Amino acid sequence: MTTALPARVLYDFEGEAGNNELSVYENDVITVVCEDVGEGWVEAVKSSGEQGLVPASYIEYEGAYETMQPAGQDDWNEPLPPPPAVGGVVQFDTNTAGTGGEQDHEWSDYDSDEDHNRQARPSISVDHDDDSRSGSTNQRSYTMKKSMNRFTPYVKSGAEDFILGKDNEEFSESDKITIICPNNIDLSWQPNNVVTVKIIEPIKKHKFKGMKSFMSYHITPSTTNLTIERRYKQFDWFHDRLTEKFPCFIIPPLPEKAVVGRYQQDFIEQRREKLELWLNRIGRHPIISHCNVTNHFLTCQDEKDWKGGKRKAEADKTARSGFFMTVKCDAHLPDNLTSESYVGSFSVFHKKMEGTLDKLVKQNDDYAGKMTGGIKHMYSKYGSIFKELGELFDTGPLNNSKPVNVALMSTGRCYQEISEVYENQPRYDAHVMGEAVREYQGMLGAVPDMLHVHKGAAQKVKDYTQREGEKDAEEEQNVLQRYSTISAAVMSEINHFHSERNIDFNTMMRGFLQSQIDFHKNVVQKLEHALSQYPAPSSLE
User: Fold this and answer.
1) Is 120 left (phi over 0), alpha (psi -120 to 50) or beta?
2) What is the SS3 assignment for 490-523?
3) Contact in structure between 206 and 215 (CB atoms under 8 Å)
4) Is-above-0.70 flag for pTM?
5) Which of 338-347, 372-381, 461-470 is predicted least confidently?
6) Which of 88, 128, 383, 437 has the fewest CB atoms within 10 Å of its CB?
7) What one-character DSSP code corresponds to residue 378?
Protein backbone atom coordinates (compact mmCIF):
# COMPACT_ATOMS: atom_id res chain seq x y z
CA MET A 1 0.00 0.00 0.00
CA THR A 2 1.57 3.30 -1.10
CA THR A 3 -1.13 5.87 -0.31
CA ALA A 4 0.23 8.76 1.77
CA LEU A 5 -1.56 8.89 5.13
CA PRO A 6 -1.07 11.50 7.85
CA ALA A 7 -0.38 10.11 11.33
CA ARG A 8 0.47 11.42 14.75
CA VAL A 9 3.31 10.01 16.87
CA LEU A 10 2.23 8.64 20.25
CA TYR A 11 5.62 7.92 21.81
CA ASP A 12 9.20 9.10 21.35
CA PHE A 13 11.28 6.79 19.18
CA GLU A 14 15.04 7.16 18.74
CA GLY A 15 15.79 5.57 15.40
CA GLU A 16 19.14 4.37 14.16
CA ALA A 17 20.08 6.16 10.96
CA GLY A 18 22.43 3.35 9.95
CA ASN A 19 19.47 0.98 9.95
CA ASN A 20 17.09 3.25 8.01
CA GLU A 21 15.08 4.17 11.09
CA LEU A 22 13.47 7.56 11.60
CA SER A 23 13.62 9.38 14.94
CA VAL A 24 10.21 10.76 15.86
CA TYR A 25 8.76 12.32 18.98
CA GLU A 26 5.40 12.50 20.71
CA ASN A 27 2.84 14.66 18.87
CA ASP A 28 4.94 14.88 15.70
CA VAL A 29 2.81 14.69 12.57
CA ILE A 30 4.30 12.43 9.92
CA THR A 31 3.17 11.00 6.59
CA VAL A 32 3.08 7.24 6.20
CA VAL A 33 4.09 6.37 2.62
CA CYS A 34 4.21 2.59 2.98
CA GLU A 35 2.22 0.44 5.39
CA ASP A 36 3.31 -3.00 4.17
CA VAL A 37 6.97 -2.92 5.22
CA GLY A 38 6.19 -5.88 7.49
CA GLU A 39 6.61 -7.04 11.08
CA GLY A 40 4.94 -4.00 12.60
CA TRP A 41 6.91 -1.33 10.74
CA VAL A 42 5.80 1.47 8.44
CA GLU A 43 7.80 3.81 6.24
CA ALA A 44 7.15 7.46 6.94
CA VAL A 45 8.29 10.98 6.04
CA LYS A 46 8.66 13.93 8.43
CA SER A 47 7.80 17.49 7.50
CA SER A 48 11.54 18.14 7.19
CA GLY A 49 11.71 15.60 4.38
CA GLU A 50 13.53 12.94 6.40
CA GLN A 51 12.30 9.44 5.56
CA GLY A 52 12.67 6.07 7.30
CA LEU A 53 11.08 3.28 9.30
CA VAL A 54 8.88 3.82 12.38
CA PRO A 55 7.17 1.23 14.61
CA ALA A 56 3.49 1.00 13.66
CA SER A 57 2.47 0.80 17.32
CA TYR A 58 4.06 4.20 17.99
CA ILE A 59 1.70 6.09 15.69
CA GLU A 60 -2.03 6.67 15.19
CA TYR A 61 -3.53 7.64 11.87
CA GLU A 62 -5.14 11.06 12.10
CA GLY A 63 -8.44 9.89 10.62
CA ALA A 64 -8.89 7.47 13.54
CA TYR A 65 -8.78 10.05 16.34
CA GLU A 66 -12.44 11.02 16.41
CA THR A 67 -13.82 7.49 16.29
CA MET A 68 -11.33 6.12 18.81
CA GLN A 69 -11.54 8.95 21.32
CA PRO A 70 -12.56 7.55 24.73
CA ALA A 71 -15.78 8.85 26.23
CA GLY A 72 -15.29 11.84 28.45
CA GLN A 73 -11.88 12.73 27.04
CA ASP A 74 -12.13 15.98 25.14
CA ASP A 75 -8.49 16.92 24.74
CA TRP A 76 -6.38 14.57 22.65
CA ASN A 77 -3.38 16.75 23.37
CA GLU A 78 -3.16 15.42 26.90
CA PRO A 79 -0.04 13.25 27.25
CA LEU A 80 -0.59 9.56 26.63
CA PRO A 81 0.62 7.04 29.18
CA PRO A 82 4.12 5.72 28.50
CA PRO A 83 4.64 2.31 26.90
CA PRO A 84 4.08 -0.39 29.54
CA ALA A 85 7.27 -1.28 31.41
CA VAL A 86 7.94 -4.42 33.40
CA GLY A 87 11.04 -4.64 35.60
CA GLY A 88 13.22 -2.34 33.51
CA VAL A 89 12.04 -3.97 30.26
CA VAL A 90 9.85 -2.13 27.77
CA GLN A 91 7.10 -4.37 26.43
CA PHE A 92 4.46 -4.17 23.76
CA ASP A 93 1.73 -6.57 22.75
CA THR A 94 3.07 -7.94 19.49
CA ASN A 95 -0.19 -9.74 18.75
CA THR A 96 -2.02 -6.47 18.05
CA ALA A 97 0.21 -5.49 15.17
CA GLY A 98 -0.08 -8.60 13.02
CA THR A 99 -2.79 -10.30 11.09
CA GLY A 100 -4.58 -11.70 14.08
CA GLY A 101 -2.98 -15.11 13.66
CA GLU A 102 -0.09 -16.66 15.56
CA GLN A 103 3.01 -14.51 15.56
CA ASP A 104 5.50 -17.21 14.64
CA HIS A 105 8.09 -15.81 12.28
CA GLU A 106 11.20 -17.28 13.85
CA TRP A 107 13.25 -16.99 10.70
CA SER A 108 12.28 -13.47 9.73
CA ASP A 109 10.81 -11.42 12.57
CA TYR A 110 12.40 -9.00 15.01
CA ASP A 111 15.75 -9.98 16.43
CA SER A 112 16.25 -9.89 20.18
CA ASP A 113 19.66 -8.33 19.64
CA GLU A 114 19.85 -6.80 16.22
CA ASP A 115 16.31 -5.37 16.38
CA HIS A 116 16.17 -4.53 20.07
CA ASN A 117 15.48 -0.87 19.57
CA ARG A 118 12.43 -1.69 17.46
CA GLN A 119 8.69 -2.09 17.57
CA ALA A 120 7.54 -4.92 19.81
CA ARG A 121 10.65 -4.50 21.96
CA PRO A 122 10.08 -7.43 24.28
CA SER A 123 13.23 -7.11 26.35
CA ILE A 124 15.40 -4.03 25.97
CA SER A 125 18.24 -4.37 28.42
CA VAL A 126 18.65 -1.16 30.40
CA ASP A 127 21.57 -2.18 32.57
CA HIS A 128 24.26 -3.46 30.24
CA ASP A 129 27.73 -2.01 30.56
CA ASP A 130 29.53 -1.37 27.28
CA ASP A 131 32.84 -0.33 28.81
CA SER A 132 35.50 -1.06 26.20
CA ARG A 133 38.47 0.73 27.71
CA SER A 134 41.66 -1.10 26.84
CA GLY A 135 42.76 -1.51 30.42
CA SER A 136 39.42 -2.43 31.91
CA THR A 137 38.40 -5.99 32.65
CA ASN A 138 35.44 -5.06 34.80
CA GLN A 139 32.87 -5.45 32.06
CA ARG A 140 29.63 -7.11 33.10
CA SER A 141 29.26 -9.39 30.12
CA TYR A 142 26.24 -11.23 31.47
CA THR A 143 23.15 -9.26 32.41
CA MET A 144 20.06 -10.80 33.90
CA LYS A 145 16.63 -9.45 32.98
CA LYS A 146 14.83 -8.31 36.09
CA SER A 147 11.39 -9.77 36.49
CA MET A 148 8.56 -8.07 38.31
CA ASN A 149 6.31 -11.09 37.90
CA ARG A 150 4.27 -11.52 41.06
CA PHE A 151 4.79 -15.27 40.92
CA THR A 152 7.89 -16.53 42.70
CA PRO A 153 10.39 -18.85 41.01
CA TYR A 154 8.93 -21.60 43.19
CA VAL A 155 5.39 -21.14 41.89
CA LYS A 156 6.51 -20.72 38.27
CA SER A 157 8.65 -23.84 38.52
CA GLY A 158 5.64 -26.10 38.99
CA ALA A 159 7.21 -27.55 42.13
CA GLU A 160 4.10 -26.82 44.20
CA ASP A 161 1.80 -28.65 41.78
CA PHE A 162 4.23 -31.56 41.82
CA ILE A 163 4.43 -31.74 45.63
CA LEU A 164 0.65 -31.64 45.98
CA GLY A 165 0.22 -34.26 43.27
CA LYS A 166 -1.91 -32.03 41.06
CA ASP A 167 -0.40 -33.34 37.82
CA ASN A 168 -1.08 -36.91 36.75
CA GLU A 169 0.73 -36.94 33.45
CA GLU A 170 2.26 -40.26 32.43
CA PHE A 171 5.75 -40.22 30.96
CA SER A 172 7.63 -42.89 29.07
CA GLU A 173 10.88 -44.39 30.28
CA SER A 174 12.74 -42.45 27.58
CA ASP A 175 11.63 -39.22 29.25
CA LYS A 176 13.14 -40.19 32.59
CA ILE A 177 16.07 -38.24 34.03
CA THR A 178 18.26 -40.38 36.25
CA ILE A 179 20.05 -39.39 39.45
CA ILE A 180 22.84 -41.66 40.63
CA CYS A 181 25.12 -41.85 43.65
CA PRO A 182 28.41 -43.29 42.34
CA ASN A 183 30.38 -42.94 45.58
CA ASN A 184 27.43 -43.55 47.92
CA ILE A 185 27.84 -39.96 49.12
CA ASP A 186 27.16 -37.38 46.42
CA LEU A 187 24.09 -37.38 44.22
CA SER A 188 24.71 -36.57 40.57
CA TRP A 189 23.05 -36.62 37.19
CA GLN A 190 23.55 -39.70 35.04
CA PRO A 191 26.68 -38.93 32.94
CA ASN A 192 26.31 -38.33 29.22
CA ASN A 193 28.54 -37.49 26.29
CA VAL A 194 29.74 -33.90 26.20
CA VAL A 195 28.53 -31.89 23.21
CA THR A 196 31.04 -29.37 21.87
CA VAL A 197 30.15 -26.51 19.55
CA LYS A 198 32.04 -24.21 17.21
CA ILE A 199 30.67 -20.89 16.00
CA ILE A 200 32.38 -19.40 12.95
CA GLU A 201 31.87 -16.69 10.36
CA PRO A 202 29.12 -14.47 11.76
CA ILE A 203 27.50 -12.86 8.73
CA LYS A 204 25.50 -9.67 8.50
CA LYS A 205 22.30 -10.32 6.60
CA HIS A 206 19.51 -8.08 5.40
CA LYS A 207 15.76 -8.14 4.95
CA PHE A 208 13.09 -5.74 3.69
CA LYS A 209 15.27 -5.06 0.64
CA GLY A 210 18.20 -4.10 2.81
CA MET A 211 16.28 -1.85 5.17
CA LYS A 212 16.83 -4.19 8.14
CA SER A 213 19.97 -5.99 9.19
CA PHE A 214 20.83 -8.82 11.58
CA MET A 215 23.74 -11.13 12.38
CA SER A 216 23.61 -14.81 11.53
CA TYR A 217 25.91 -17.23 13.39
CA HIS A 218 27.19 -20.44 11.81
CA ILE A 219 27.09 -23.21 14.41
CA THR A 220 28.60 -26.68 14.11
CA PRO A 221 27.83 -29.17 16.93
CA SER A 222 29.95 -32.26 17.52
CA THR A 223 26.83 -34.45 17.44
CA THR A 224 26.29 -33.97 13.69
CA ASN A 225 29.24 -31.93 12.37
CA LEU A 226 26.66 -30.16 10.20
CA THR A 227 26.56 -26.37 10.18
CA ILE A 228 23.33 -24.53 10.94
CA GLU A 229 22.54 -20.81 11.13
CA ARG A 230 21.00 -19.06 14.11
CA ARG A 231 20.17 -15.47 14.97
CA TYR A 232 20.51 -14.04 18.44
CA LYS A 233 16.77 -14.08 18.98
CA GLN A 234 16.81 -17.84 18.49
CA PHE A 235 19.46 -18.10 21.19
CA ASP A 236 17.13 -16.03 23.36
CA TRP A 237 14.23 -18.38 22.65
CA PHE A 238 16.45 -21.39 23.41
CA HIS A 239 17.50 -19.90 26.75
CA ASP A 240 13.89 -19.21 27.73
CA ARG A 241 12.88 -22.78 26.89
CA LEU A 242 15.69 -24.21 29.00
CA THR A 243 14.81 -22.12 32.06
CA GLU A 244 11.20 -23.23 31.71
CA LYS A 245 11.97 -26.88 31.06
CA PHE A 246 14.49 -27.29 33.87
CA PRO A 247 13.18 -25.21 36.81
CA CYS A 248 15.94 -26.17 39.27
CA PHE A 249 18.91 -26.03 36.90
CA ILE A 250 21.53 -23.30 36.89
CA ILE A 251 21.06 -22.01 33.34
CA PRO A 252 23.82 -19.50 32.53
CA PRO A 253 22.57 -16.20 31.09
CA LEU A 254 23.26 -15.20 27.53
CA PRO A 255 25.77 -12.43 26.78
CA GLU A 256 24.31 -8.96 27.22
CA LYS A 257 22.09 -7.51 24.55
CA ALA A 258 23.23 -4.49 22.60
CA VAL A 259 21.34 -1.58 21.12
CA VAL A 260 24.27 0.29 19.57
CA GLY A 261 27.58 -0.84 18.13
CA ARG A 262 26.26 -4.31 17.31
CA TYR A 263 27.80 -4.37 13.82
CA GLN A 264 31.28 -3.26 14.86
CA GLN A 265 33.82 -5.97 14.17
CA ASP A 266 35.19 -6.11 17.71
CA PHE A 267 31.71 -6.50 19.14
CA ILE A 268 30.77 -9.18 16.60
CA GLU A 269 33.85 -11.24 17.47
CA GLN A 270 33.31 -10.79 21.19
CA ARG A 271 29.68 -11.84 20.83
CA ARG A 272 30.71 -14.88 18.77
CA GLU A 273 33.19 -16.00 21.44
CA LYS A 274 30.66 -15.59 24.24
CA LEU A 275 27.87 -17.40 22.42
CA GLU A 276 30.26 -20.23 21.68
CA LEU A 277 31.29 -20.32 25.34
CA TRP A 278 27.61 -20.35 26.36
CA LEU A 279 26.73 -23.22 24.04
CA ASN A 280 29.70 -25.25 25.21
CA ARG A 281 28.62 -24.67 28.82
CA ILE A 282 25.20 -26.03 27.89
CA GLY A 283 26.89 -28.92 26.10
CA ARG A 284 28.73 -29.95 29.26
CA HIS A 285 25.54 -30.47 31.25
CA PRO A 286 24.67 -34.18 31.08
CA ILE A 287 20.91 -33.55 30.94
CA ILE A 288 20.56 -30.28 29.04
CA SER A 289 23.03 -31.27 26.33
CA HIS A 290 20.86 -34.17 25.16
CA CYS A 291 17.33 -32.88 25.73
CA ASN A 292 14.87 -32.42 22.86
CA VAL A 293 14.98 -28.62 22.78
CA THR A 294 18.80 -28.60 22.61
CA ASN A 295 18.73 -31.15 19.84
CA HIS A 296 16.20 -29.01 17.97
CA PHE A 297 18.28 -25.85 18.38
CA LEU A 298 21.53 -27.50 17.27
CA THR A 299 20.28 -29.59 14.37
CA CYS A 300 17.18 -28.09 12.72
CA GLN A 301 17.90 -26.53 9.32
CA ASP A 302 14.49 -26.30 7.68
CA GLU A 303 12.21 -23.33 8.42
CA LYS A 304 9.06 -25.44 8.53
CA ASP A 305 10.73 -27.98 10.83
CA TRP A 306 11.96 -25.15 13.04
CA LYS A 307 8.46 -23.80 13.54
CA GLY A 308 7.06 -27.26 14.23
CA GLY A 309 9.84 -28.03 16.73
CA LYS A 310 9.39 -24.62 18.32
CA ARG A 311 5.70 -25.23 18.95
CA LYS A 312 6.43 -28.70 20.28
CA ALA A 313 9.06 -27.35 22.67
CA GLU A 314 6.72 -24.65 23.92
CA ALA A 315 4.06 -27.27 24.64
CA ASP A 316 6.49 -29.68 26.29
CA LYS A 317 4.74 -31.53 29.11
CA THR A 318 8.08 -32.45 30.68
CA ALA A 319 8.63 -28.78 31.56
CA ARG A 320 7.88 -27.23 34.97
CA SER A 321 6.15 -29.77 37.19
CA GLY A 322 6.56 -32.36 34.46
CA PHE A 323 10.32 -32.13 34.93
CA PHE A 324 10.10 -33.30 38.53
CA MET A 325 7.80 -36.12 37.46
CA THR A 326 10.49 -37.39 35.08
CA VAL A 327 13.22 -37.45 37.74
CA LYS A 328 14.18 -40.98 38.73
CA CYS A 329 16.59 -41.52 41.62
CA ASP A 330 18.58 -44.77 41.57
CA ALA A 331 20.08 -43.80 44.91
CA HIS A 332 18.52 -43.45 48.35
CA LEU A 333 16.52 -40.23 48.45
CA PRO A 334 17.79 -37.64 50.96
CA ASP A 335 15.79 -37.00 54.12
CA ASN A 336 14.49 -33.51 54.87
CA LEU A 337 17.18 -32.62 57.40
CA THR A 338 20.01 -33.70 55.11
CA SER A 339 18.69 -31.85 52.06
CA GLU A 340 17.90 -28.62 53.91
CA SER A 341 21.34 -28.60 55.50
CA TYR A 342 23.03 -29.32 52.16
CA VAL A 343 21.12 -26.67 50.24
CA GLY A 344 21.54 -24.19 53.09
CA SER A 345 25.31 -24.68 53.02
CA PHE A 346 25.34 -24.07 49.29
CA SER A 347 23.36 -20.87 49.79
CA VAL A 348 26.08 -19.59 52.13
CA PHE A 349 28.78 -20.76 49.70
CA HIS A 350 27.01 -19.00 46.84
CA LYS A 351 26.93 -15.64 48.63
CA LYS A 352 30.59 -15.91 49.66
CA MET A 353 31.64 -16.89 46.15
CA GLU A 354 29.78 -13.89 44.72
CA GLY A 355 31.61 -11.58 47.10
CA THR A 356 35.00 -13.15 46.42
CA LEU A 357 34.56 -13.02 42.65
CA ASP A 358 33.60 -9.36 42.91
CA LYS A 359 36.92 -8.79 44.70
CA LEU A 360 38.77 -10.76 42.04
CA VAL A 361 37.20 -8.73 39.23
CA LYS A 362 38.15 -5.50 41.01
CA GLN A 363 41.71 -6.69 41.57
CA ASN A 364 41.92 -7.89 37.99
CA ASP A 365 40.77 -4.52 36.77
CA ASP A 366 43.28 -2.74 38.98
CA TYR A 367 46.08 -5.03 37.74
CA ALA A 368 45.20 -4.46 34.08
CA GLY A 369 44.99 -0.72 34.62
CA LYS A 370 48.45 -0.57 36.16
CA MET A 371 49.99 -2.86 33.54
CA THR A 372 48.62 -0.77 30.67
CA GLY A 373 49.10 2.53 32.50
CA GLY A 374 51.59 3.32 35.25
CA ILE A 375 54.01 0.40 34.90
CA LYS A 376 54.07 0.61 31.12
CA HIS A 377 54.78 4.36 31.26
CA MET A 378 57.48 3.85 33.89
CA TYR A 379 59.42 1.40 31.68
CA SER A 380 58.88 3.59 28.64
CA LYS A 381 60.32 6.62 30.46
CA TYR A 382 63.30 4.58 31.66
CA GLY A 383 63.86 3.53 28.05
CA SER A 384 63.76 7.11 26.78
CA ILE A 385 66.20 8.29 29.47
CA PHE A 386 68.68 5.42 28.92
CA LYS A 387 68.59 6.02 25.17
CA GLU A 388 69.11 9.75 25.69
CA LEU A 389 72.10 9.05 27.98
CA GLY A 390 73.67 6.79 25.37
CA GLU A 391 73.27 9.39 22.65
CA LEU A 392 74.67 12.08 24.93
CA PHE A 393 77.69 10.02 26.00
CA ASP A 394 78.36 9.21 22.35
CA THR A 395 79.23 12.85 21.82
CA GLY A 396 81.98 12.67 24.47
CA PRO A 397 85.78 12.58 23.79
CA LEU A 398 86.64 9.09 25.13
CA ASN A 399 87.17 6.56 22.33
CA ASN A 400 86.72 3.52 24.61
CA SER A 401 83.28 4.73 25.74
CA LYS A 402 81.68 3.56 22.48
CA PRO A 403 80.67 0.07 23.74
CA VAL A 404 79.02 1.53 26.85
CA ASN A 405 77.21 4.15 24.82
CA VAL A 406 75.88 1.50 22.43
CA ALA A 407 74.86 -0.68 25.38
CA LEU A 408 73.00 2.24 26.99
CA MET A 409 71.02 2.85 23.81
CA SER A 410 70.31 -0.89 23.59
CA THR A 411 69.06 -0.81 27.18
CA GLY A 412 66.77 2.06 26.24
CA ARG A 413 65.28 0.01 23.42
CA CYS A 414 65.01 -2.95 25.78
CA TYR A 415 63.00 -1.00 28.32
CA GLN A 416 60.70 0.37 25.65
CA GLU A 417 60.09 -3.19 24.45
CA ILE A 418 59.37 -4.25 28.02
CA SER A 419 56.86 -1.40 28.32
CA GLU A 420 55.01 -2.91 25.34
CA VAL A 421 55.18 -6.37 26.92
CA TYR A 422 53.51 -4.96 30.03
CA GLU A 423 50.86 -3.20 27.96
CA ASN A 424 49.97 -6.37 26.06
CA GLN A 425 50.14 -8.80 28.98
CA PRO A 426 46.59 -8.28 30.41
CA ARG A 427 45.04 -9.73 27.26
CA TYR A 428 46.83 -13.01 28.02
CA ASP A 429 46.11 -13.26 31.74
CA ALA A 430 43.78 -10.63 33.25
CA HIS A 431 41.33 -10.56 30.36
CA VAL A 432 41.22 -14.34 30.05
CA MET A 433 40.68 -14.72 33.78
CA GLY A 434 38.11 -11.92 33.69
CA GLU A 435 36.02 -13.71 31.06
CA ALA A 436 36.04 -16.93 33.09
CA VAL A 437 35.09 -15.08 36.28
CA ARG A 438 32.31 -13.13 34.60
CA GLU A 439 30.83 -16.33 33.23
CA TYR A 440 30.62 -17.65 36.78
CA GLN A 441 29.16 -14.39 38.00
CA GLY A 442 26.42 -14.92 35.44
CA MET A 443 25.80 -18.47 36.62
CA LEU A 444 25.77 -17.38 40.26
CA GLY A 445 23.09 -14.88 39.27
CA ALA A 446 20.89 -17.82 38.26
CA VAL A 447 21.40 -19.69 41.54
CA PRO A 448 18.77 -17.84 43.67
CA ASP A 449 15.90 -19.13 41.49
CA MET A 450 17.04 -22.70 42.13
CA LEU A 451 17.33 -22.04 45.87
CA HIS A 452 13.87 -20.45 45.94
CA VAL A 453 12.41 -23.57 44.34
CA HIS A 454 13.81 -25.73 47.12
CA LYS A 455 12.95 -23.25 49.86
CA GLY A 456 9.38 -22.95 48.61
CA ALA A 457 9.03 -26.70 48.41
CA ALA A 458 10.35 -27.12 51.96
CA GLN A 459 7.88 -24.54 53.27
CA LYS A 460 4.99 -26.19 51.45
CA VAL A 461 5.86 -29.53 53.05
CA LYS A 462 5.99 -27.93 56.50
CA ASP A 463 2.64 -26.25 55.94
CA TYR A 464 1.16 -29.52 54.78
CA THR A 465 2.47 -31.66 57.62
CA GLN A 466 1.63 -29.10 60.31
CA ARG A 467 -1.90 -28.38 59.14
CA GLU A 468 -4.74 -29.00 61.54
CA GLY A 469 -7.44 -31.60 61.14
CA GLU A 470 -7.46 -35.20 60.05
CA LYS A 471 -4.48 -36.24 57.97
CA ASP A 472 -4.13 -38.86 55.28
CA ALA A 473 -1.00 -40.77 56.25
CA GLU A 474 -0.49 -42.21 52.78
CA GLU A 475 -0.84 -38.86 51.05
CA GLU A 476 1.49 -37.23 53.58
CA GLN A 477 4.08 -39.87 52.79
CA ASN A 478 3.64 -39.17 49.09
CA VAL A 479 4.16 -35.44 49.71
CA LEU A 480 7.38 -36.16 51.60
CA GLN A 481 8.51 -38.51 48.84
CA ARG A 482 7.91 -35.88 46.16
CA TYR A 483 9.76 -33.27 48.21
CA SER A 484 12.71 -35.66 48.46
CA THR A 485 12.67 -35.92 44.67
CA ILE A 486 12.93 -32.13 44.35
CA SER A 487 15.71 -32.13 46.95
CA ALA A 488 17.61 -34.83 45.07
CA ALA A 489 17.34 -32.84 41.84
CA VAL A 490 18.57 -29.64 43.48
CA MET A 491 21.43 -31.45 45.23
CA SER A 492 22.45 -33.11 41.96
CA GLU A 493 22.53 -29.72 40.25
CA ILE A 494 24.59 -28.26 43.09
CA ASN A 495 27.07 -31.11 42.76
CA HIS A 496 27.24 -30.60 39.00
CA PHE A 497 28.02 -26.92 39.62
CA HIS A 498 30.81 -27.83 42.05
CA SER A 499 32.23 -30.41 39.64
CA GLU A 500 32.31 -27.88 36.80
CA ARG A 501 33.72 -25.20 39.09
CA ASN A 502 36.54 -27.51 40.15
CA ILE A 503 37.50 -28.19 36.53
CA ASP A 504 37.08 -24.61 35.34
CA PHE A 505 39.02 -22.89 38.09
CA ASN A 506 41.82 -25.44 37.77
CA THR A 507 42.00 -24.65 34.06
CA MET A 508 41.75 -20.92 34.70
CA MET A 509 44.52 -20.83 37.29
CA ARG A 510 46.86 -23.07 35.31
CA GLY A 511 46.44 -20.79 32.31
CA PHE A 512 46.85 -17.65 34.41
CA LEU A 513 50.03 -18.86 36.10
CA GLN A 514 51.55 -20.16 32.87
CA SER A 515 50.89 -16.80 31.27
CA GLN A 516 52.54 -15.05 34.23
CA ILE A 517 55.55 -17.37 33.98
CA ASP A 518 55.90 -16.76 30.23
CA PHE A 519 55.57 -13.02 30.81
CA HIS A 520 58.29 -12.85 33.46
CA LYS A 521 60.56 -15.13 31.41
CA ASN A 522 60.16 -12.78 28.46
CA VAL A 523 61.08 -9.77 30.61
CA VAL A 524 64.06 -11.59 32.12
CA GLN A 525 65.33 -12.63 28.67
CA LYS A 526 65.18 -9.04 27.45
CA LEU A 527 67.01 -7.80 30.55
CA GLU A 528 69.66 -10.50 30.21
CA HIS A 529 70.18 -9.53 26.59
CA ALA A 530 70.57 -5.87 27.59
CA LEU A 531 73.09 -6.83 30.27
CA SER A 532 75.13 -8.87 27.79
CA GLN A 533 75.74 -5.73 25.71
CA TYR A 534 77.92 -4.14 28.40
CA PRO A 535 81.67 -4.87 28.24
CA ALA A 536 83.47 -6.44 31.16
CA PRO A 537 84.72 -3.82 33.67
CA SER A 538 88.35 -4.88 33.12
CA SER A 539 88.17 -3.94 29.43
CA LEU A 540 87.46 -0.33 30.33
CA GLU A 541 90.45 0.21 32.62
Assistant:
1) left
2) HHHHHHHHHHHHHHHHHHHHHHHHHHHHHHHHHH
3) no
4) yes
5) 461-470
6) 88
7) H
